[in-house]
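Annotators were shown the component list below and the corresponding predicted structure, then asked to write short factual statements about the assembly.
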Amino acid sequence: MLTIRNLVTCYGPIKALKNVSLHVVKGEIVCLIGANGAGKTTLMLSIMGIVKPKEGEILFEDEPIHKLPTPSIVARGISLVPEGRQIFYPLTVEENLELGAYHRYKKEPKESIRLDLEKVYELFPRLKERRKQLAGTLSGGEQQMLAIGRAFMARPKLLMLDEPSLGLAPLLVDSILKTIKSLNEEGLTILLVEQNARRALELAHRGYVLETGKIVLQGRTEDLMADEDIKRAYLGKDYREFTD
Amino acid sequence: MKPDNTIEYLSQEGWRQWHLELLQSTINRVYHRVPFYRKLMDINNISPEDIKSLEDLKKLPFTTREHLEENYPYDLFAVPLRDIVRLHTFPGPRTPIVKGFTLRDISAVRRLTARFLAVSGVTSEDIIQICLDPGMSVWIAEIKEGAEELGASVIPPDPQSVQNRIKVMRDFRASVLITTPSYALYLMDLMQEKGIEPPKSLSLIVFVGEGIEEEERVRLEQVMGVSTRLGYGVTEAVGPGMGYECDKKSGYHLAVDYFIPEIIDPETGKDVPPGEVGELVITTLAVKANPLIRFRTGDMARFITEPCPCGRTTPRISQIVGQADGRVSIRGIKVSLTYIENLLEKAYSHIPEYVLCIKKKNYLERLSLWVAINEKLFEPSILGLHQVAERFERLFAETFGLECRLKLVEKEHLEEISKGKKIIYLH
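Structure shown to annotators:
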């Protein structure tokens, strides 16, 4: 579904991604793990066209998308739940959700958008309770639900989540990850960035390890969890970067 | 457990992406972690970022068995030593060659071996008897684990007389025999000679270690009442099951989710045209402890360019048609002339003229090394000469786990028989 080859993305003279190649197959949950500054967020922003890659190609459903503007990428079916949620605080919950479907209004009947809204409320009953409340007044967990709900409103084929568990209480992390799993079971393909490597590996089918802008390891998540390097670097067994 | 084989049917585009991703991460790791590869890449002015396509693999230099030996003991590991949970050693001319396994490597090889056996027709219902020489101990361990992964029962090759092996095979109703073609032919002949009926339970023979002539294969299948399959592997690279036959029995399907194969001209190092014979070169993708980049296997084979009717999209190679580097395969054990010369030097303090004679007796190769008498060989007594010869024979047996008689002959006689060759076959 998503195929990336030799992606190079720079911030000024600094290469944040160096020849990154990866793929996501329809129906999979793929996770990206790596330390702070490894390039995980940059990779997501590059896929969305928010930062422009310098080299390489990104194919979505066999079509190159790396030269497209962000709105066209969203229209093709990729949605990002950004790190730190970035919801619109002064708007209500429902307005935030409706904005997620902004590119659909001209093309689709209102009814189908309303149905998706209902679906989001089904997924997160808490949001339904607070549909008229200003987003800025929500708790961290509710904001994360709203961010996922908003991304879902774009009817993505591929949902990308950047650190969905960041700053959340353990119980909320569980419920967010459970939601991601059930969305996947309903057929949504997911690319997940998580600092909480253990949780990400438990959830995903396959994973890639990003280190200083390079992929250094990949594989089925059960293999990655058993990998000594991963245990040391990311699962809290005497932590250190593993190409040191 | 039935292995998941969907990967064998990946599209060509899918394979290219799979290989590119794994090649890049492998190179990223070895460059940072293996000083040998870093140096090799630095000298050739290649950085990991230059690997942007599979064709870029060709920019990297080859690795040979000499490199494995030179970097003994620790210099080829890509993981800290404490992550190595198993070490296999095999003979090198001067030092042993080592191959380490992380836990992940062990389970990867086990899964691959299980797939190889499953594609060969082995199921969890089978009772597998392994008959391989102790010189193939690495494979014995790996095949046993692969079979156990499938849930089959295994009879490993404990030291037994051949009669006892046949008895065990019969009494425990072994259904699968895993052995070399030469040992299978030897068993067949022995059974025929002694008037022993081949056990009815036996339905499949999986050959490893070497290939077999079609004619002999057909005869074996008929006489023993079995079907047969062939497997291929390189001990230094991944293990048994790197190549295996599907039910079409037309060449080895290569397990290219574990490595990238190339076939090159051993003289020029360039790719041979598709379908022509050359040396098989392997770059491992799924190995963590001892990754190998463009390792020259010494095995000569050709790619079979037509797609296989079985539907697998993995590339196929022919049976191995020879050795590129002065090695010879004896019952699956690779004996190289460099090693022999090294043993001669140890015994005689110089390398005399010699020829390695391989004689097939009852399908099992018998080795003898004929050495030309010269003045440097001179010992004050016949006994002394004998002792030196015995020393060589002992060293040989220790190194390869095979017997090789040393015979002193006159120089003229040796030249007459060898006609300038180092290896000859006697009939």
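Statements collected:
1. The longest helix of chain A spans residues 170-185.
2. Chain A touches chain B at residues 3, 5-6, 18-19, 21-23, 214-218, 223, 226-229, 243 (CB under 8 Å).
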